[in-house]
Structures are given as structure tokens and as C-alpha cells.
Amino acid sequence: MRQNGERASGSGAGAVGGAEARTKTLHAMATARLGAVCALAGLGLALLIRLWVAVPGVQGPGGLLGPFLGGWFGVRLAFWRMATIQGGVILAGASIAVWHRHAKRRSKAPRTLQAPRATFLRTLERIVATHDDLPYSLILFDIDGFRILNERHGTEACDDLLSCVKRKLAAALPEDARLARFGSDEFLAFVPRLAADEALALARGVLESVAGHPFDVGTGTLRATLSAGLASFPESAHSLRDAISQMTSALQEAQSGERGTVVAARHNKVGLCRLGAEVESALSERRVCPAYQPIIDLRTGHLIAEEGLARIVLPDGQILGADEFMNAATDLRLASRIDEALIEQALDRCREQSRQGDKRLRFINVSAALLQERRLLERTAFAFRGCDILGDLTGSRNPIVVEITERELLRDPAAALQALQPLLDIGARLAIDDFGSGYSSFLYLTALPVSFLKIEMQLLKTARTSARARSILKGIKAIAQDLDILTIAEGIEDEELARIARDHGMDWGQGFYFGRPVLGSLPRARASEKVS
Q1: Which domain holds residue 79?
Q2: What is the pLDDT of residues 421-449, one digit of tens each?
Q3: Residues contacting residue 280 through CB under 8 Å, at least 6 positions apart
Q4: Domain boundary among 108, 132, 163
Q5: Domain shared by 149 and 258, yes or no
Q6: Which of 111, 131, 206, 230 has the smallest count of CB within 10 Å of its CB?
Q7: What is the distance between the alpha carbons of residues 13 and 158, in angstroms, rounded to a whole number?
């Protein structure tokens, strides 16, 4: 794992490396000048000797000291004169060679690498200003572990690596893209007319090509990986400044995980500055409501359950998904109030449909904030008693399934179990969401009463091309079966993913292929409105 402070340290190392390179260049220039001065001094001394001393047997002017100096001493003076001339010529040649070498190295560096960051940003501002409706994506690439590479291989090798990486990026980007150095080890790409999904696919392709490519540097070859963050206008940002801010935050998120990853900025349809106030207003005006997505038995194709997903309906009818407001709600300590609103509406739906003979299970997401609300959980458990009609569908007397992400559960499994106990005591069951997303620990399955494992969608998608991912799916299914735990494959978007899930023994499936989330009852008549 990459440490959070590594990026800042890497940037510092790049600055130090640049300072060291400039210092070496100055020393080389000073050496060249000193050599030239010495050469001129040597030539001058030889000329003086030639003018003032007459050497026997050597044609030329007699010199002023000729009558007094001659013989053996004159021969010695001739020797030192020739040595001085030769030394001066050698020093002059060496000085010219040193000067030429460093001038050539400076000319080899691409000019775009030295372009100021502010100049590139001004260029982008002009492009955006002259094309108000131009959609675009910004992708910020960063070399992973640049500080370590700098310390291990030296500044010259890392300077060559930066040049090689930039050429690789330029070759991989579309022809109308613009690329510039954005930091010590960062490169910013501006790609017009590229949507967020396309930018994400492009960035992933670039990261894969760089990770598998050896770069030739002065000391041999180096391999490097990149992390990337991206933002798109108008899909996730409302201005160039907002896109840059979101792109930078996305890169920081990518760097906090595994190397060689790319993160896209989350959609922000109402703007970050308004989001907190919008959540407060939605709660007070009862505009927080669940959207229900079906869960299908993969063997029979029958509707077996549904999951309630948090949504906010704006006054103009626009609908926000949970990924657009839950982070802000968590920061403002409003997440538990959203949970309470969803649970209340889900229970009302459960009671009404249960009286009509509907025996499907009801999956309800629970945030980490709700686990801290003991009294709220106790009130919820009491309310659950009114939804006590399940029949013999799954052998449980309560149709409610409390769903919590694996990440939240693993922070403190014992505390999570204690908080959820009032719900478990009245027959509600426990489902682990995003299982296999990088935080898996099979040990807690032996201690907690887990009834369902919801397999993270990326693992299922990876199984399309990866034999290892398919083996992991088979292993998860075997363990779950031994522990009498049902498996649910998330993110099934097409028949191929549904087939992969069935072939690997997944019990149930959920995703757009089976049905998109549909809003329940709202303050206004929008019950049939669908949500993507």
C-alpha cells in the first residue's frame, strides 16, 4: 500500500533532484570557464617565453634576455614552453568538450516538460472560454513511488524517465488532446469531447500500457506505474476550476489505495457548496426516499427480494443518487437520519405488501453512523415486529435483511455485532455488501451471524477475462455453501455476467440487467419514475 505522505515526499524529492541537477550544471559550467582561463593563461605564458627568451638552435627573435640566458637553461625554458603550450591546448579542448556535453543534454530535454504550469492553465482557460459548450475531460497522471526511484537510480535517470513517460502518454492520447507537465512527477491531459466513461477507459488503458513497458534511461531500463484521477465537464464538474479541484481529489483517492489505479470524480449535479444544505432541506421536507431494485433467483429467474437505495428528490424533480450526497451527509453527521427515513418507508412498504401476500425479502442498507445510534436501532427493532410475515420462503420469520459494507464491519466486528443485536434478536438477518472489494477477511464469518454475501461487482466483471477471478468466485461459493450463506452477485448488466454468475454457483443476482432502481411512494406523484 502507498502511504498518504508519499506523494508530498515524492514531489519534494523531484524539487530536490531538480536543484541538484541545476547545481551540477553550474559546477560544470564553472569548470569549463576555469579550464578556458587556464588554457588562455598557459598560451599567454608560452607566448611571453617565446618573446623574451632566445633558445639556441631555435629560429626566431632573439629576445631581450637572450644575451644573459642560454645553454642548459635555455633548453629547459624551451621544454617548459612546449609543455605549457600542450597543456593549454589540452585544457581548452577539455573545456569545450564539457561545455558541449551539457549544452547537448539541455537541448535534448523536451521543451514541453519545462513549460510552466500556469502557462498551460491559461491555455486551457482560453480554450474553454472560446467554446462554452465544449465537453472535455481532465486526467492527471502521477508516477507512483517517484521519490524511491529518485533515491535509488539518481536524478539523471529519473529525468530521462519523465521524458519517456511523457512521450508514452502523448502517443496514447487522442490527436486533439493537450498534455503538459503539471508537477514534479505529474502530467495533465486535456481531452476535448471525451465523456467520463470514455475518459475512464482511456486512463485505464494508458496505465496498463505504462505498467508493462520498460523505459530506457541512461543507466539501463526502468519500470514505473502510474496512478490517475479524472474529472469531466459537464458530467461531474461545472467549471474548469471545479474540474481541476475534483481531478486532484480523485488522484489523491487513487494514491491512497493500490498502485496503478485510476479514480473518476463523483458526479456533482448540485455543487459541493449546496450539498449539505440540500440534504438538510430534503430531510425536513421528507424528500429522502428509497428506490427499490429487484434481486433475482439465478436458477429460476423469479423475483426473490429487493434492495432499498437512498435517493433525494430535488424541488425541480431532479433525483440524486446515494453516491452524490452520502459523503456530505456523513461529514455533516446526517447519515443516520437518512437511514432512519429509509427504514421507516421500507417498513411501511413491507407491511402493506406483506398483507397482500408478497413474501419477498427487504434488504436495507445501514451506514456506519447508524451503528452508533443505539436508541435508534432499538426503536427500529421495535418497528420491525410489525413486519413479521414471511411464511416458508427462506425459513426466517422476518423479511428484513440489514445490509452493511464489509469495510464498515471490519473496523470493529465486535462493536458492530453488539450494535446490530437488537435487530438480530427479532429475526432480521445480516448481509455483507461489497464482499471481495479488497477488505475481505474470512475469519469474521465464523464469529458473526452472516446470512448473505453480496459479491462486489468488479470481481464479477474481472471474471470475464481473468481465470484467477473465476477461481476466487468458486472459492467464495464453496466457503459460503459450507457456512450455509447465500451469495448474491451485484452489478449484473448483461446476459454474459448473468451466465458467469450462474456458472460459478451464485445463488441470486442484482443489476441493471434484471431491473433498474424504481422510486417508491413520494410526496408528489412520482411512484413510477425510474432512476438510473
Answers
A1: 6-108
A2: 888 887 888 898 878 655 456 767 777 88
A3: 332, 334
A4: 108
A5: yes
A6: 111
A7: 11
Q: Specify burial of residue 453 (Cβ count, 10 A radius: 0-12, 13-18, 19+).
A: buried
Residue matched to cell numbers 481529489: 249
This prediction's pTM: 0.51
In a domain, 54, yes or no: yes
User: 230: pLDDT confidence band, cut at 50, 70 and 90?
Assistant: very high
Long-range CB pairs of 513-518 (<8 Å, 24+ gap) are 514/294, 514/295, 514/296, 515/293, 515/294, 516/293, 517/291, 517/292, 517/293, 517/309, 517/311, 518/291, 518/292, 518/293
Most confident range (mean pLDDT) of 79-88, 109-118, 252-261, 457-466 is 457-466
d(CA 56, CA 78): 9
Tell me what the pLDDT averaged over the chain comes to. 76
CATH of the domain at 446: 3.20.20.450
Predicted pLDDT of residue 222: 86
The reply to whether 136 and 100 lie within a common domain is: no
Q: How far apart are CA 369 and CA 408, in angstroms?
A: 10
Same domain membership, residue 118 and residue 104: no
Beta pairing, strands 226-233 & 136-143: antiparallel
Burial 1-36 (b: 16+ CB within 10 A, else e): ebeeebbeebbebbeebeeebeeeeeeeeeebeebb
Q: What does DSSP assign to residue 4?
A: T
Question: Same domain for 294 and 249?
Answer: no
Which is higher by pLDDT, 90 or 270?
Answer: 90
Q: What is the pLDDT of residues 334-388, one digit of tens each?
A: 888 888 888 888 888 888 887 788 888 889 887 777 777 777 777 777 766 655 5
Question: Are residues 73 and 155 both part of a single domain?
Answer: no
Cell of 479: 466457503
| Stronger pLDDT, 411 or 476, i.e. the higher one | 476
Contact 280, 483 (CB under 8 A): no
User: Does the pLDDT of residue 501 top 80, yes or no?
Assistant: yes
Same structural domain, 101 and 194: no
Q: Which candidate, 192, 194, 165, 195, places its Cα nearest to that of 180?
A: 165
State yes or no: pLDDT of 506 exceeds 90: yes
Same domain, 213 and 319: no
Place of cell 535534448: 108
Structure confidence by residue, pLDDT tens digits, 29-76? 666 666 666 666 666 666 665 555 444 444 444 444 455 445 545 555
Contacts of 106 (CB under 8 A, 6+ apart): 25
Which of 406, 500, 392, 397 is CA-nearest to residue 452? 406
| Residue 286 in grid coordinates | 421528507
Residue ending a domain, choose from 53, 81, 108: 108
Q: How far apart are CA 24 and CA 106, in angstroms?
A: 12
Q: Are strands 429-435 and 361-365 parallel, antiparallel or unpaired?
A: unpaired
64-79: b (≥16 Cβ within 10 Å) or e? eeeeebeeeebeebbe
Q: Are residues 304 and 420 in the same domain?
A: yes
Any domain includes 298 = yes
